């Protein structure tokens, strides 16, 4: 059996210039760059703060789709 998942990964720099990633599952596959950039800018203007008080998503850097395929080699019989 093969199982495939698609994740939209949004990459930001935080207030300390460290890279932060936000992974979104169950997203549309054909989102335009403009729409994703608008969404990322909305996240930035929300000023989400992490547990250390750092602005977690300060500057949009990139967005990418990550496709993951898992193929079973074998599985024990279920009783």
Automatic annotation (TrEMBL):
Pfam families: DUF2922
Superkingdom as given in the UniProt entry: Bacteria
Full protein name: DUF2922 domain-containing protein
Species of provenance: Holzapfeliella floricola DSM 23037 = JCM 16512
């Amino acid at each position: 059996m093969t199982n495939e998942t698609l994740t939209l990964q949004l990459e930001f720099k935080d207030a300390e210039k460290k890279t932060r990633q936000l992974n979104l599952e169950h997203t549309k596959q054909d989102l335009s760059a403009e729409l994703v950039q608008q969404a990322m800018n909305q996240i930035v203007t929300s000023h989400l703060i992490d547990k250390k008080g750092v602005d977690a998503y300060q500057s949009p850097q990139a967005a990418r789709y990550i496709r993951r395929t898992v193929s079973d080699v074998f599985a024990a019989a279920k009783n």
